[in-house]
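Practice record 12: protein with zinc ion.
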Amino acid sequence: MKNAPCIIFIDEPDSVGHGREVKNGATSEHEQTLNQLLSAMDGFDSNKGVVVLAATNRPEVLDPALLRPGRFDRQIVVDTPDVRGREKILTVHAKDKPIGSDVDLSKIAKITPGFTGADLANLMNESALLTARRGKKIITMREVSESMERVIAGPERKGRVLNERTKHTIAYHESGHALVGHLLDHADPVHKISIISRGRALGYTLSIPDEDKVLNSLSEMKDELAVFMGGRVAEEIFCDDVTTGASNDLERASKMARAIVTQYGMSPLGTQVFGQPNHEVFLGRDYGNTQDYSEETARRIDEEVAKIMKEAHDRAHKILADHADQMDLMASVLLERETVEGEACEALLDNKWDEYLAREDEIIAAKEAEEAAARAKDAELLAAQGDGEGAQTAAASSPDAGET
Ligand code: NHX
Ligand code: ZN
């Protein structure tokens, strides 16, 4: 204890400190490590001035012995940051980077609900890298927006070769999500629609809640389910055949529908929770459940889930069939432009495309003037700093080797 006073930090202790009930050959080493940790921590008891600190995303899988008095006896909950927290975190990560005058951190904080501190750090870092790659000295809102999508959906893969039929399917699939999302009251507003491949997705629709949500109402979940189905339903109505492309949407929708019945007590089966979460870390992960109900109940759960899924499908179907002309227009605009966002996206969704087209030159000119003004201001600030050593370049930032 010659280093006392000191703080010992253990990152992700769950990798050694998970519950010992797992009966699996590889566990004995974990168990030894855990026992050693436990006895070492008891040793610290008499040595004032040694603080052991640990961080985990899964406190529930830790061995209860680790959490007893004298060991990790206090827990500090760190939620994903709210809008104010995000702005402060962004400020920290922007501090040593050359940020343009049009980069509004409070605006970025507003459109990044659900981002963790690591995501936000990653966002600012990607922005700096992208700026350097583009040979620019100052990070502008363009780079931040592009990086945001990279963090959410992965890097753009513009070069991907797709035939016309596939592009047609992608355009209608995304238009379907977007239009259902726009027309349902409790769905998140649609900000951008794109048929450019990104990461694993061939196309995507970006919807962002207006504010941080800590609770989800049944109406919101039902609308979200209809939005999930919007992609597949658009294929059913507007394409020759349905495709495997909706697999991820359907998986997420099915999971949500089942949770409505088994976890949230929102179905005719009542408020009982069905299935005990399985905490056997390495076997079941967080997903496995122990069936604590009869086969008869299992059948009724399946029926209710199917009913919820069908209802979502039918709601999406009604909306898209009723707006077939608008869907044709949206898909054709997407095929031509590949992405729509901002006022163009709003106009498409509000079915006011012609009005938008008439004003488009004006809108684009205004936006360009705004950007030019911001760049002029940046140049001024850069010059005032005395360009030499004071001015940092974006290239000074390096990629983080942290988790992704
Ligand atoms: C494939 N990808 O795997 C091809 C390349 C239907 C227009 N053969 O629903 O791209 O089929 O609204 C996270 C995110 C699998 C995990 C997206 C796992 C996509 C995405 C399959 C659009 N947008 N599907 C969508 C899509 C596909 C997939 C994912 C994922 C398509 C669809 C992927
Ligand atoms: Zn989809």
